[in-house]
Design a protein that fits this description.
With 616 residues, the protein is an alpha+beta fold. Helix content is 50%, strand content 15%. The radius of gyration is 28 Å and the shape is globular. A seven-stranded antiparallel beta sheet has the order 8-9-17-13-12-11-15, with no helix packed on it.
């Protein structure tokens, strides 16, 4: 049974979509906030393949699905109509940069198909016109140009609707503000360039700008609208809200946008675009190296979304952009480095993963390659960065540019048809070739310093046992005595638990960090022999959204046994009435022959052997 079918059965067993207020997940459990808990059919729920167990606690129904719970949640979210895997979770406190990146990606994600499709058409006809294959004076060209340019001309409308969903405000009021910015009175005045501003109430200047194709002004405008709308709605009596909340909100937010927010957004967008142009004016090669080199790590950290509004601002200001071709070079470099790894792994399973990741990279989807391959092979990641910088410097030297927003895949190449086409093709070959060669010569065979092949792992597993050490100083207790039946019944896996006396948490084994949960309460580590270890800090601590925890490792990082990986604020957990017991579990018990527990001790020291694991 596939995960979609499992999700459907789970939803049916908990009382259907109508009985679900919200859903999210932690490290191993799918969690539901239900309207009526009596509608849950526990017998049916626990009979579903993949469901390890259920529990109702803290007003939540918890369905245990194991460490791949995220995949089940994704299918559940689609059925329930939740926006994303993160949107429905209890909110985690984030820094300013993280919030900005989440906002940018959330706003542009839904509208990418429209701007990418229109951008591809716009790039193709611009290239054909540059080659004199078609004339830009014919009716055919004008009609196709309307189809391609409409999205970019009225981009604030698309951004307004998308931003309204992110900021949780009325989408039609948001679109109304976008319409205000692009009303013919404003656009005609901006085109005529005869006046610099209108005078509101004869004393408040309203600057005249062309807002077509801009994105930053409308994002800030909708953000402002969201606060004004909520405030007005809260202040007015309920009987007046239907009419006066939208009236007052539109009037106030609209005037603020025209007089303050819109002009500031224009200046900010121009400042960002001018800064990029300044770097390239110093040296096109230097600009290519800088932006080519930072692109892979930017994708890896999610910072690449920040480049989208800058690229769109370039299209609005000058009709073309030089950053998007470098995004294509980066994707091809990531693909080339990933292909090199294919020739360095021995197991068929790894080869299959690497090859499929490389194919995705060619199609412009680099996350499988980055997170599934290059995060493990650091030298390949370095090769991808170098290849991206080399190819980007090359195309920047020759001034390669694009005339419409497109996805950075191999199929985007036709959009470059024109005077820069040859250099774009050469740039792709340089990106693929240089990253492949650098990675190929940097990476040793698996039996060297990199990830071990499956055959070697299997051979070692036959003759070696694994020791799981104490992750903290304190009292080791048997899992059956843990005050959470999901752990005590070993639904998630077998292992041990420890009641910590101090808050510092250490790795029980050597291996690679596979998962760091966003709420920081759980970390997954995979040993070189394939054993998957889950360190779950506290019971029901997912509800704290990261408060009381510090994590000192990240996904893909190699750790040694007894290395410090996290800290728990025990006093904070006590004040929040949370059990601080740490569970150390093997989640892939099919790889284990036997677990032998060392006698429990009240004064177990860090690094002491707690469990001896015999592998199959």
């Amino acid at each position: 049974m596939n995960k979609k079918d499992v999700a459907k059965k789970i939803i049916k067993a908990v009382g259907s979509e109508k009985n679900i207020n919200n859903a999210w997940h932690c490290m191993t459990r799918l969690r539901f906030d239900l309207k009526d808990v009596d509608q849950v059919d526990y017998k049916e729920l626990e009979s579903i393949p993949g469901v390890m167990g259920t529990k109702f606690q803290c007003d939540q129904l918890q369905v245990v699905l194991g460490t791949n719970v995220g995949e089940y949640y994704n299918e559940t979210a689609k059925i329930l109509g939740l926006d994303s895997a993160q949107a429905s979770q209890p909110k985690e406190k984030k820094g300013l940069v993280a919030m900005f990146m989440d906002t940018v990606s959330g706003v542009f994600g839904p509208i990418v198909p429209a701007i990418a499709g229109a951008g591809m058409i716009k790039g193709l006809i611009a290239g054909l016109a540059a080659l004199n294959i078609i004339s830009n004076q014919t009716d055919t060209y004008l009609v196709i140009d309307m189809l391609a340019s409409g999205v970019f001309t009225f981009l604030p409308f698309f951004v307004a609707a998308s931003a309204a969903k992110i900021f949780k405000t009325n989408p039609y009021l948001a679109i109304a503000i976008a319409a205000t910015l692009q009303f013919p009175t404003m656009t005609s005045a901006a085109a005529a360039k005869e006046i610099s501003n209108f005078m509101l109430f004869n004393f408040i200047p309203v600057p005249v700008f062309n807002y077509s194709g801009t994105v930053i002004p409308i994002i800030f405008a909708v953000l402002c609208l969201s606060y004004i709308y909520r405030w007005v709605d809260k202040m007015l009596p309920e009987v007046l809200r239907t009419v006066f909340t939208p009236t007052i909100s539109l009037f106030v937010a609209g005037l603020l946008t025209l007089t303050v927010i819109g002009p500031i957004g224009i200046y900010l967008g121009n400042l960002l675009a001018d800064f990029i142009k300044w770097i390239f004016s110093i040296s096109p090669i230097l600009g290519g190296i800088i932006f080519g080199a930072i692109r892979p790590i930017a994708i890896f950290t999610g910072l690449h979304h920040a480049m989208t509004p800058i690229a769109l601002q370039n299209f609005a200001n000058q009709g073309w952009d030089m950053l998007m071709p470098m995004m294509l070079m980066a994707n091809m470099a990531i693909t080339g480095a990933t292909l090199a790894v294919y020739f360095k792994v021995n197991s068929q399973k790894e080869k299959s993963i690497v090859f499929s990741s490389a194919v995705s990279g060619l199609l412009g989807i680099t996350e499988p390659a980055l997170f599934g391959v290059l995060s493990k092979y650091k030298k390949a990641f370095i090769a991808a960065t170098c290849g991206s910088a080399i190819a980007s410097a090359f195309i920047s030297f020759f001034g390669v540019r694009i005339y419409g927003y497109i996805l950075s895949s191999i199929f985007s190449l036709p959009a470059y048809i024109g005077e820069y086409f040859v250099y774009a093709v050469l740039g792709i070959l340089i990106a693929l070739g240089s990253s492949f060669l650098i990675a190929y010569f940097l990476i040793k065979k698996p039996e060297g310093n990199d990830v071990k092949s499956a055959s070697k792992v299997d051979a070692e597993a036959e003759i070696k046992d694994i020791t799981m050490n104490a992750v903290a100083q304190g009292e080791v207790i048997a899992l059956k005595n843990v005050k959470d039946e999901i752990f005590s019944s070993k639904m998630v896996g077998d292992g041990y638990a420890i009641l910590p006396e101090k808050g510092t948490v250490y790795s029980p084994v050597s291996g690679t960090v596979e998962t760091v949960f966003p709420t920081k309460h759980a970390i997954g580590i995979r040993t070189n022999t394939g054993l998957e270890i889950l360190i779950h800090m506290g019971i029901d601590t997912v509800e704290l959204n990261g408060e009381g925890f510090k994590v000192f490792v990240e996904q893909g990082q190699t750790v040694s046994a007894n290395q410090k990986i996290a800290e728990m604020d025990l006093e904070f957990l006590k004040n929040k009435e949370k059990d601080p017991t740490i569970m150390v579990l093997i989640t892939n018990m099919d790889a284990v022959c036997q677990i032998k527990q060392v006698e429990p001790s009240e004064n177990t020291e860090i690094g002491s052997a707690v469990s001896l694991v015999a592998l199959k």
